Amino acid sequence: MKHIHVCLISEQTIPNILGIFYFKPEEVLFITTEQMLKREKTEAIVNTLKRLGLNIPFFEIVVREDSIYDCHRKIAQWMEKHEEDNFTVNLTCGTKIMSIATYEIFKDYGSKMIYIPIPKNEFFEVYPLKKLSEPQPLPLRLGVIEYLTAYSLRVINEAKLNRYKEESEKRKALTNWIVTNYNSIEGLLSEFYKVLQKSRNVSSFDLTIEFPISNELQRDFLKAAGFNISGRTISKKLSRSEIRYLTGGWLEEYVFNSLNSIKGRGIDDVVMNVEIENIQGNKNEFDVMFTKDNALYFVECKSLSPEDDITKSSLYKIGALQKEFGLRAQSFFVTTSPHIIKDGQIRQSVRARAEQFKTEIIKPDEIVNFETIIRKKLKIMEE
């Protein structure tokens, strides 16, 4: 006699992952459809479970999602060989027809059936019937890569993510200094961007520029970053990492460090510069992604005062990424651009675009308080 957990397959995969991880059955039965087969939803669930250390044998039944007769017939036929087994059933996903058919069949076996109210991390026992069913907590919290895997997305550069984190932590003091003193060194950073923007993918770059240092903070920054200074001449051999840092990567690292500082204390996981690919082969890169309570968030960063049209294109990119990659994610747009502000407020056109894509804008004067803002937005208590 085996414990078999039954799942109904639809676009949402995470409720099934949470249920399987909670019950840890000996086998799993997936009731799916032709459409979900094409979208590789079962594979996404299985691959995510493997990343979580569960390699559970599974069965798969393909039904017509609009035919209760077809659902009944195929499930009943499968059950003929498993009548002696014990079942738990997750009714959260699938179509209403699939849920009704599954409920009717497994009710006759006295099986425990649950429902997970999305996006809560808890389940209710809907059968056997009780006068009052208290919600049971689901303790699993997915990291970023597990979440992406659950949506059939592959992280192309997973092996590099830890290096990005280490580099960011090494530069944390300098990064914080840049954010605090940004207005005084903006001209210098803009000059670096002009010279280096087309060399972001080279392995190294021998930089030599003429620049009139106008204040001591600019000189302090150059010394802290290891530049050679001779009069107006500034020089250094830059690595690829340093090139990216000077051309805007510092803002991405600031956001990452802010979130990483509350990892395990409100944020479950955070990664930066993550490159993903969907099953159609489309690729893209996200500046910063993080998870909290099995929800995904991402942050798009734009520094060096991009023009208004670039700001709008960044917001369009957020919308396109949400649609193209099927990610139900809340997003934040962090920018140093003054062009998004009019009379001290975010321009109406920019605000409307951000609301369209469910994006929260972090204004230039708010960046230094990014961690506090995130805590407030996501209701993370101060310790």
UniProtKB/TrEMBL annotation:
InterPro entries: Card1_endonucl_dom, CARF_Card1, Restrct_endonuc-II-like, tRNA_endonuc-like_dom_sf
Gene3D superfamilies for the chain: 3.40.1350.10, Hypothetical protein VC1899 like domain (Restriction endonuclease-like)
Card1 endonuclease domain boundaries: 242-377
Domain of life per record: Bacteria
Pfam name, any one: Card1_endonuc
One of the record's GO molecular function terms: nucleic acid binding
Card1 CARF domain residues: 4-134
Protein known as: DUF1887 family protein
